[in-house]
Amino acid sequence: MTTALPETAGKMHEPLSRSVSEPSAPTGRALIWAASLGLAAVVLWQMLFKAGAVAVGFENWRPVLYAFLLWAVAVGAAQVLIRGERGKHALFVLPAVAFTVAMVIFPTFFGLYLAFTNWNLSSFTGPQFNGLDNLRSLMADAYFWNALLNMAYYVLFVLVQYAIAFGLALLLNAEIRARKFFRVAFLLPFMLSPVAVSWMIGKSLMEYRFGPAATLARHLGWENPAFFTTPWIARLSIVAMDAWVWIPFIMILLLAGLQAMPKEVTEAAKVDGANTWQSFWQITFPLMLPVSVTAIVLKIIFQLKLADIVINVTAGGPGGATDTVSSFIFREYRDRSNVGYGTMLAEFYLVLIIIFVTLLLKFVSRFMQRTN
Amino acid sequence: MHVKQHETILAMQANRRSVLKGAAALSALAATGGLTALSPEARAQAELRTQLLQVPGVGKGSPTDADWQKVGELCLNATKANVKEGEFKGVELTFMGLNNQNLHNLLFRGFLKPWEAYTGAKINWIDLAQADYNARLQQSIATGTVDFDIVEMGAPFEGDVCGKGLASEMPDWVKAQIEMDDYVGYLKAPVGTWNGKTYRISIDGDCHTFNYRTDVFSDADLAKAWKDEGHQGDWAVPNTWQKVQEVTKFLKGKKVAGQDAYGYLDPAKGWGGFAFYFLESRATAYAKHPDDKAWLFDVDTMKPRVNNPAFVRAIQDVIDALPAEPADQLNADPGTTAFQQFLAGTGSMLAWWGDVGSMAKTSDGSVIGDTVAFSILPGSDDVYNAKTGQWDKLSSGPNFAPNMAYIGWGVYVMARVDSDPVKQKAAWSAAAHLGGKDISLWTAAYPSGFQPYRNSHFNIPEWVAAGYDEAFITSYLKSQSDSYNHPNAAIEPRIPGIFQYYSVAEDELAKIYAGGSTAQAGADAIAAAWEKITDQIGRDKQIELYKASLGA
User: Do B330 and A317 touch (CB under 8 A)?
Assistant: First the structure.
């Protein structure tokens, strides 16, 4: 690239170019081979040592991490040796790739291995492969299926959140007084952590004895305003808190969509004599479908991760009525140190989510195509 | 001592009345020969204890790091008797503990600073939040990456650490230095020991006691209604769970001082495993037979007893009592029952740790400061005998079995120091300094995160001299002392993964309380889940460790 630049401009890069020695592909390839063999040897040796096949090895797996880091450095150096300047460009990306491999890709696959073990942190034997036992336990686990059923309810409530958010977006898009203030004010709940919302609303405002929401409910004639003791009221209370946090998110997406919508269309409809409802239902709503679908799909993905509010406010109760899959996994993993089964639950749920979201996207794609 | 207890003292301030009381107590001590008849060593000891209680002194604000260091300095004599100056020069130790309420490790730092200066050793610190503690400890153990030499740890984790041979055995000189004989009954062996070897230096005591409202149980209208409704006996504080049930149902719909009256408060929601302690407290009087050390599992098989008639009766008691408890009880965890209900004036009976008593007078949310009193947990007219399968009526009267829930914090030295004799002595010396008799008086009386745990802590005149209200502190300390020293105390099984058992039980109990299952079916489900955990952790090893923890 620098060769194409005028000489004066190219001077900026000169020190860089000069520091590059002539690419030496064979040396680079040899370095990759040597580093890879070295890494493989260290991993294999340590695996054999842990399996008891060899007598000498490292006390823990940390040296394997160091070997991986050395391998990553060697691969980076080899890129420069093999590809010269282009290899240097690759150096900007390689650390991120190595980091992603170490922190995302490896754990995902290692998680798959753990999902098929009976690893309990208190166990004396460590992780032991137990075939499909975890999957069988999961199939027979009433707590998991109960939580999954609750997730179905929670996901359905996204449509209600969407309807409310649409109404608010329309209001904020209209020529109302203090519009800018309301736009910021309505966004505030989204800026709060759901943990803070759990305490502020679930454990304070809705507290049975002194909570203002409970006091108001008493004034309105509800004698015992216990928001979290009967299944459907508890579920609705959780959904209401979740909605309070997330409606602004849907609303802001819809508002952006409304503002991007050509005004001429609605004005033309008005000229043609369409009333407000017709204008909304026949023009605004269909035009907004792609944005709506995006907002709903995103919210569903967030909804499937719902855990923090439930853990803090009800711990899944009463009797599992508000439990979510994530809060159940949290208990299984953190409170019960049941790493093998907890990982199986998480991986199985991940697969379910991938299938569900893929089907959902396929289903909604016909609405999305209208943008074209 | 817990922070709130200290705030109690601060709230009292050193007013004229308390000074007079203190003076009176000192005179009483002197009059009974307490001070005058002492040997020179004992007199020096007594003076040291008096001096310690003046750091920083009642009404002088919360102790600071300078105060902690001063306490550490004052209590260094025990170390000096066993360690030469500069003996551990060059030794580095790593200490893992908590940072709750900016106490625990932060307090230990101050205590150990003079020790470091004297011995020449250096201590590195790993501070953990309570919520991260269990996971960090478990992961270190499971992945073989124990990177600390000394650990502050609760007794329930002993199975995971001592049971796996990861702890260093306590040398005899340490036992002498910390005066272990002074420990309250339940903290003596087998607690802290495995297969006859001692590992734990106790720095805290824990048990559930019974907190009740004196105004409710002296209310004339309620006494009349009690008689009118044909109940047996006088209107009084229940001393058996049968009476607790009767009183709880009786109070439904009644009023005290214009407010709705409630009886016992059950936490029906899980609390990371800790809520199971509250079912235990209801069950121990039914399940802990004086002739049997075990009460939660069969010793020889680890077969759970949680679905035996004793526990099922306790679960059924909760189911029967819930309709008479506040309407939101299904969403009440132990934090709610203590701090949002009982201290705020809802309910008249509660089993809890010492925090309720210490907060009753000072917490802004507390309205019961002058109307609360304490006793050991209620008993039962009959007790289940797991060996015969019969309910026994004891000739001595109701069966009492206070629940030593969590047992309390201790300091443990890890086995990894054993290969280096100097490092081993240094680690044990540091731990012994923290677990010394005199330093413990200070931690019992000032904010530290620890409760009284030695017989010498129950010397009421010492507390009164320091500024405490006599009636309150007597009732409070007596309930703890009587629980700790009870011959039939129910001691928690110190087996690996004990909180896993509790956590899974909480899920099932929540289902039972919400009407999703009967007491027996739910208890059977808990037992089945417990069997699974036992198999997963290793049944033979669990049996072996359970026996070792019981000293059997």
Answer: yes
| Strand residues in B436-540 grouped as ranges (E) | 490-491
Give how far Cα B311 sits from Cα of B270, B303, B348, Å.
17, 14, 24
Judge whether B177 and B78 are in contact, CB under 8 Å.
Answer: yes
Q: What is the pLDDT of residues B268-312, one digit of tens each?
A: 999 888 899 999 999 999 999 999 999 999 999 999 999 999 999
Per-state percent for chain A, helix, strand, coil, to nearest 5: 75, 0, 25
Least Cα distance to A346 among A64, A88, A147 occurs for: A147
**From CA B288, how far away is CA B13, in angstroms rounded?**
43
ipTM above 0.95, yes or no: no
Closest CB to A315: pick one of B143, B333, B512. Answer: B333
Cis peptide, bond prior to residue B378, ω within 30 of zero: no
Structural domains in chain B, CATH included, are: 64-178+409-450 (3.40.190.10)
* Contact of A233 with A216, CB cutoff 8 Å: no
Q: Are A172 and A269 in the same domain?
A: yes
Tokens of residue B148, six digits: 């600390």
DSSP collapsed to 3 states, B172-220: HHHHHHCCHHHECHHHCCCCCEECCEECCEECCCCCCEEEEECCHHHCH
Cα(B445)–Cα(B207) distance, integer angstroms: 18
Question: What Rg, from alpha-carbon coordinates, does chain B have?
Answer: 24
Q: Which domain holds residue A105?
A: 15-115
Co-location of A342 and A221 in the same domain: yes
| Closest residue of chain B to A214, computed from CA coordinates | B328
* Residue A221 maps to a domain: yes
N residues, chain B:
552
Report which DSSP code applies to B216.
G
pLDDT higher than threshold 60 for residue B22: no
Pair A247, A165: CB distance under 8 Å: yes
The C-alpha atoms of residue B19 and residue B467 are separated, in whole angstroms, by 7
* Together in a domain, A26 and A92: yes
Query: In three state form, how does the secondary structure of B363-395 look?
Result: CCCCCCCCCEEEECCCEECCEEECCCCEEECCC
Assessment of whether the complete model's pTM goes beyond 0.80: yes
Distance separating the N- and C-terminal Cα atoms of chain B: 33
A19 in any annotated domain: yes
Nearest CA in chain B to A228: B331
Instruction: Inform me whether the C-beta atom of residue A141 falls under 8 Å from chain B C-beta atoms.
Output: no
Of A60, A63, A115, A330, which is closest to residue B135 (Cα–Cα)? A330
